Amino acid sequence: MTISRRTLVQAAAAAAILPAPAIGQATAPAMRPIPSSGEQTPAIGLGTWITFNVGDDPALRDECADVMGAFFEAGGRMIDSSPMYGSSQPVIGYGLDRLGRPETLFSAEKVWTSSAAEGSAQLERSRSFWGVQRFDLLQVHNLVAWEAHLQTLFEMKAAGQIRYVGITTSEGRRHDLFKEIMGSHPLDFAQLTYNIVDREAEEQLLPLAAERGIAVIVNRPFRQGALTRQLDGKQLPEWAKEIGTATWAQFILKFILSHPAITVAIPATTRVNHVRENVAAAHGAFPDTAMRKQMAAYVRDL
Amino acid sequence: MSEWWTYRPEDFLLFSPRVYWRMFELQNEALWPLHLVTVAAGLAIFILLLRRPSRDGRWIGLLLAALWIFVGWTFLWNRYAAINWAIFYVAPLFAFQAAGLLIAAIMPGGLAFDRRDVVGWTGLLLAAAGLVLYPLFPPLVGRPWTSAEVLGIAPDPTVIVTLGLLLAARGKLLVLLFPIPSLWCLLSGVTLWTLDDRQAWLPLVTVAIVLAALGPRSLISPPAS
Lengths: 302, 225
Fold this sequence. Notes:
The complex is a heterodimer of chains A (302) and B (225).
Chain A: H1 5-16, E1 31-33, E2 40-42, E3 46-47, H2 58-73, E4 78-80, H3 88-98, E5 106-111, H4 119-130, E6 137-140, H5 146-158, E7 164-168, H6 175-184, E8 189-193, H7 205-212, E9 215-219, H8 226-231, H9 248-257, E10 264-265, H10 272-280, H11 289-301
Parallel strand pairs in A: 3-4, 4-5, 5-6, 6-7, 7-8, 8-9, 9-10
Antiparallel strand pairs in A: 1-2
Helix pairs in contact in A: 2-3, 2-10, 3-4, 6-7
Chain B: H1 17-31, H2 34-51, H3 57-77, H4 87-106, H5 118-133, H6 137-140, H7 155-167, H8 179-194, H9 201-213, H10 216-219
Helix pairs in contact in B: 2-3, 3-4, 3-7, 5-7, 5-9, 7-8, 7-9, 8-9
């Protein structure tokens, strides 16, 4: 099943007229379709870059498990990691064990090695760290050795060992090659950096994703926390209440999720209250085109 | 790596400041009261080099080698590497440095800690600061005492004490013993800088002192007799 760009725009427009629930209210987050399958997925996932790399520290491992627990409790499903993220993978495995292996988990992993031959062994190590039977989504991290790895991933998908295949980039790197691969391979997912300040993806990648029916995962929505730190202490505009935003984090996430080509944003956090706040941003109304312009201008002028 | 020029040091930062400093708290908790032994070893080194600098170079070299092996194994390999995969490649350098110190210590004319010119005294001051002042920094930068970095337990004071002592030394292999500790100071300084930690200047200033002290002439110091 494929979803056209028009359908996505209509879905986003329909979502925009829904009333916004109060923050913290136990309401399921907005669901978005994965174009290649039609499967619905919550619009907020959980990133693990830096935040879950806590090594063997037992107290910090428990904090991460608490964050995962709050994430699942709020209706979240997708957790994204990479072999590049230090100890994040075993920490996710620890959290999943402690939470009794939630069935709603959507596991998103990456292959990250310049050696084509090493790819399969690395994926097996990752699977062992997570303690899952199979990953839902495997992505080629930052296009490292992408030709060989992508072939492996497509073969795994054909053999039923994974459900989806994707590629990733971050902070605007290698967009030309990224676009070329998106246009020439039957990808299910593309992961890229997009937020209210970094909007380069709007020019070509997001329209191409919509046209090709590729789900988009947004990484670094808060610029690794720099954006929210920068906005901290500054006044949210009065009109932000119209879309049910109570914090800058929600303001930024609402902006991201209101783009019709975006499927999931994966903010990372170490705090339970933040993960709840993030998932709450996927509730209720989203800004329309005019308000998106207003939001971007407001942040730019601060 | 493609488009390498677009990367900044913080792009390679894999962990948060909180996780970084918690490592030292856990290391201290796990090894206490071994700190008393390693600091005693540091004090013993100073007593040896002030009383019989020419004759006891062997023992000083052996003590330093033991501290490098211990820190490389307990901290870098078993703790730091868990949050920073690059440390898997750095930890063996601590073993190489220990081997170098060991060889220099036992070979005739390998190491004598009897250099007492400006460079030598600067080195002794640096080593004393690494031993005594380094562990006192946590409250000055708003961290708990439990995260103190101590000679023989944490890498930075171990490396800084070693560099200071090497500046106060002469010997055939001396020139080979500076690169690894200097590179560590650079790595540690850049790491702390990307963590936005005020303590970053300590290892970076140490490298600057070593480079300034090791002018072309001072490198060609005569071998120990």
